Amino acid sequence: MSEQIVVELVKVIDCQNTLGENVLWHGLEQAIYWIDIEQAELLRYQPASAQLTRYALPERIGSFAFLKTSGTSDYRIIAAFASGFALFNPDTAAIKWLDKPQNMLGLRFNDGRTDRQGRFWAGTMVEDANMAQQQAELYQLNANGQAISVLQQIEISNGLCWSPDGKTLYHADSPKHCIKQYAFCPETGQLGAAQHFAETPDNAHPDGSTVDHMGHVWNAHWGAGRVVRYAPDGIAQLSVELPVSQPSSVAIGGPALDWLIVSSSRLGLSASQLAAQPLAGHLFIYQLQNIKGIPEVFCQLPAAWLAK
Predict the structure, then answer these.
(1) CATH code assigned at 116
(2) Fewer CB atoms inside 10 Å of the end CB: C or N, the chain?
(3) Which residue has the higher pLDDT, 143 or 109?
């Protein structure tokens, strides 16, 4: 490995999430946001004051993004709740549903993100194979507030992120242990053909991802207790071992954009496993050297959408 990258654990946030996911750094607020899917919560941590705030949500949530608003909007985030897309204000609980795809029986929304142009994307996952009438899909929310299916035949949609120039989309179907990449048209949002990017071992399911300033992909290996940094050619260059087996999502944020922030889960762990990894479900902050993140893109929607 050519870069001398140093990764040091500096903070553990005691949040005891059942299923922590979708960690994001809010640069304007200087705060970390993430979700607990199973507890239907949005969490916010302010490093300067060490204050942790929990917001109750109307139903389980798969992913979210910050909204770009004028400051007068009734809503602050766009969310892929379990059943569909909505605008939401954590402070007031105001909600505005946008679209709920049909045939969601046995499915729920999962990982999502905004592209470099501010469009929101989110995928579904098969939660109950005995009930699901179809496989999961990846959706783009279009300019009319409709969820448009972009990829199909998915089991668990995950790992959504874009290259720094916005011309490559990365996406994983977790049970298949494979991260794929797609040529991406920034102007239209259209995808090219799927190309192989990286494979994960049998004990590692590719979960949430992010991209650093050099275009390297950081992916949480659920089940294997690590975060792996991949070069743009798909070669693994760095592995960060965690004290928990189920890291779930990653962000690179902090005041100087040099913190690796990792959420984790306690879901499905036995009593003996929990005893062996008491930090499961907590949030981890690592100090990075020689690596920077890319500021999070806020979702940009027509002004009419942001009114009640």
Answers:
(1) 2.120.10.30
(2) C
(3) 109
